[in-house]
Amino acid sequence: MKIDVENRDNGAILHLEGKIIGDGVARFRHAIEEQINSNVSWIILDLSEVPLMDSSALGTIIMAFLKLKEKKGKLVLLYVQKSILEILNITKLNSMFEIYDNMQSAFDAVQINQ
Questions:
Q1: Is the dihedral of CA 64, 75, 44, 7 positive or negative?
Q2: Which of 48, 92, 97, 109 pairs with 13 at a CA distance of 20 to 30 A?
């Protein structure tokens, strides 16, 4: 699994590549926590290259969403693949997260609260 962090304004875009399962989840959690602890006010998770994630990865996203919300920040999902979208729909998490299919819309969404 590969994680590229693009810091922009007062937030971060995490470009993720590969399956977020097993050992990759710990790296994913660490990358997200590092951003939250650096006081970003928003995170965009680019999932365009993520074909699969396990329940621990979903838990990490929920944790990040709640921590940012607590700080009046925001987390949104970008380019969610069909297999992950199905998991979000089945678990009803699709109603929790804002999901976008283009970068500008996602960026606009996180900027609204700023």
A1: negative
A2: 92
Average pLDDT over residues 80-89: 95
CA 1, 62, 36: angle at the middle one, nearest 5? 75
**What residue numbers bound the domain in which 91 lies?**
2-111
Number of domains in the chain: 1
Q: Which segments of 41-97 are extended strands (E)?
A: 42-49, 74-78
C-alpha span between 29 and 24 (Å, rounded):
9
pLDDT tens digits for range 23-51: 999 999 999 999 999 989 999 999 999 99
The verdict on pTM exceeding 0.90 is yes
